[in-house]
């Protein structure tokens, strides 16, 4: 299948995050968990790409995903510790994790150029969706100024990821 872990995640994000926003504004603890989960899922997908891909551009992109998402997640963990907030698992983060695992399993069946294309297509869709969720739901819903600032910083980084993924995707076509 040409859809990778994050295209499915993107489709999933289009459903749960708006649903969460419609039913009730997510709490800071839920936002922290959603953001951290999304980062971990992207790290997992990138690690899978590093194991499977031999394409120089795909590997460079995946290495960047591991580095940047690890750094942002470390900042997030330090912030929640400082604020004495426990990230709260919620239906959105649970659904993200479940769907991502299913898509990682699908990607595991692909090889070579088919894997590279599916992984990068997914990363484009994933980052578009996550950036949109940050802008429209997570950042506006955050009550704590430090959490909001971290999410805003993350958004700038992830917008750069989206552009990088689009560039790599264009090279694979």
Task: Tell me the layout of helices and strands.
Blueprint (H helix, E strand, L loop, with lengths): L4 H10 L1 H8 L4 H25 L3 H28 L7 H18 L3 H30 L3 H28 L1
Give the structure's gist in a few sentences.
This protein is mainly alpha-helical.
Describe the structure in your own words.
- By secondary structure, this protein is mainly alpha-helical.
- It has one domain (5-172): Up-down Bundle (Ferritin), CATH 1.20.1260.
- The protein contains 7 helices and no strands.
- It has helices spanning 5-14, 16-23, 28-52, 56-83, 91-108, 112-141, 145-172.
- Helix 1 runs antiparallel to helix 5 (91-108).
- The chain is elongated and about 45 Å long.
Shape: elongated
**How many distinct beta strands?**
0
Examine the secondary-structure arrangement and name the CATH architecture: Up-down Bundle
Structural class: mainly alpha
Number of helices, counting only DSSP H or I runs of 4 residues or more = 7
**Beta-strand percentage range:** under 5%
Assign the CATH topology.
Ferritin
Keywords:
about 170 residues, mainly alpha, Ferritin, 7 helices, about 0% strand
């Amino acid at each position: 299948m040409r859809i990778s872990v994050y295209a499915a995640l993107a489709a999933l994000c289009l459903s749960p995050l708006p649903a969460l926003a419609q039913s009730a504004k997510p709490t800071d603890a839920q936002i922290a968990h959603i953001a951290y989960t999304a980062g971990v899922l992207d790290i997992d997908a990138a690690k899978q790409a590093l194991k499977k891909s031999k394409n120089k551009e795909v590997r460079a992109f995946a290495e960047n995903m591991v580095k940047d998402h690890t750094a942002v997640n470390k900042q997030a963990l330090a912030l929640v510790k400082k604020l004495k907030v426990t990230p709260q698992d919620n239906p959105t983060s649970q659904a993200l994790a479940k769907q991502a695992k299913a898509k990682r399993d699908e990607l595991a069946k692909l090889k070579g150029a088919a894997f590279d294309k599916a992984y990068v297509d997914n990363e484009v869709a994933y980052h578009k969706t996550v950036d949109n969720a940050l802008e429209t739901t997570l950042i506006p819903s955050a009550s704590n100024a430090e959490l909001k600032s971290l999410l805003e910083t993350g958004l700038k980084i992830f917008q750069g990821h989206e552009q990088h993924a689009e560039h790599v995707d264009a090279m694979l076509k």
